[in-house]
């Protein structure tokens, strides 16, 4: 609760620095809403990807590639704190273990819900799968739109 109040005070200060009146009707609850939103958008910091994967790890003789495609994610650029919107494709070749398919999108979200850069997120997903499942190989491909490029700066898609 103390963290929530500090966050709200910080957002109120940002509104003032932008030249807004945090006491006007449309902004009265904005600091609280923003604090709750950021709590959700950064919940990945409090989640352990290895714990999530280990809860659904199964012995298997399968040695064919497992692919989960088009995992939609929303993240936040660590440089500008603006949205990153994209899709991840995750594949691995089992070596005695498989993981429940629903856990793969959960792992993507664990890392997406942190301040990120696309390159780091790709590596973190691959490392978590590699270190937990111990597959013969793992691949992660991410394509995303970066609002820090589209909304400001170079303004290119």
Name a few traits of the molecule:
157 residues, alpha+beta, two-stranded antiparallel ribbon, 6 helices
* Coarse shape: elongated
Low-confidence stretches: none
Main sheet makeup: 4 strands, mixed
Strand elements, count: 6
Q: Please tell me the overall pLDDT.
A: 95
Estimate percent helicity. 40-55%
Q: Encode the helix/strand succession as letters.
A: HHHEEEEHEHEH
How many helical stretches?
A: 6
State Rg. Answer: 19 Å
- Sheet/helix structural class: alpha+beta
Strand content: 25-35%
Q: Reading side by side through the largest sheet, how are the strands ordered?
A: 5-2-3-6
Descriptive notes:
There is one protein chain. This protein has 157 residues and is α+β, with helices and mostly antiparallel strands. The protein is built from six helices and six strands; from the N terminus they run αααββββαβαβα. Strands 5-2-3-6 form a four-stranded mixed beta sheet. The chain has a two-stranded antiparallel ribbon with strand order 1-4. Strand 2 and strand 3 form a beta hairpin. Helix 4 (103-112) crosses helix 5 (118-133). The radius of gyration is 19 Å and the shape is elongated. The relative contact order is 0.16. The mean pLDDT is 95.
């Amino acid at each position: 609760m103390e963290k929530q109040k500090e966050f709200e005070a910080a957002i109120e200060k940002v509104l003032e620095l932008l030249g807004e009146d945090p006491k006007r009707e449309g902004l009265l609850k904005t600091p609280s809403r923003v604090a709750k939103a950021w709590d959700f958008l950064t919940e990945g910091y409090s989640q352990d990807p290895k714990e999530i994967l280990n809860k659904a790890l199964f012995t298997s003789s399968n040695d064919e590639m497992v692919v989960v495609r088009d995992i939609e994610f929303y993240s936040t650029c660590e440089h500008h704190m603006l949205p990153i919107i994209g899709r991840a494709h995750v594949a691995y070749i089992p070596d005695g273990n498989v993981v429940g398919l629903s856990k793969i999108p959960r792992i993507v979200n664990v890392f997406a819900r942190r301040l990120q850069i696309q390159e780091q997120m790709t590596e973190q997903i691959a490392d978590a799968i590699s270190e937990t499942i111990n597959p013969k190989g793992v691949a992660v491909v991410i394509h995303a739109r970066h609002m820090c490029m589209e909304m400001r700066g170079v303004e290119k898609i």
